[in-house]
Fold:
Amino acid sequence: MKQNPKYWQSKEFKILLRLWDDKLAENGFEDAEESVKGSKWLKQRASNVYRQADATTIAAKENYFTLMQQHFAKERFRSPLHRAVMTHVINGEFPREIVKRLKAMGKHIDRHTVTFIRRRYENKWGIISWTPEKMDLVPTK
Structure:
């Protein structure tokens, strides 16, 4: 079979790709790309969102996640579900991603409950926001 220079655009390739994507998904593989209107796009992870942000915003976010991880290590969680949710939160995952991961593990929870659990521990630990002003990285007037 002679391949044309744009084989990756051919119908055969797209069928084969879909078949392999389905097989990988069955085994729990999560692709780094997502399909949007028939095209593949790299998923934007929480850790990448502020790469072009100013240094103060980046420092504030780093402080936020460092504090979250420190408190997480000391916390005695109310339930294994709270621990599971907060494990993903401190890794920078969005609520919808957390719901998807927990669902794959057989735990059913909605994104509002994920946000509620996150806010509960943020309030308990005194970490309400990662903005530069809240993290005391910008002098207030």
Remarks:
- The chain is about 50% helix and 5% strand.
- Residues 2 and 131 are 56 Å apart (CA to CA).
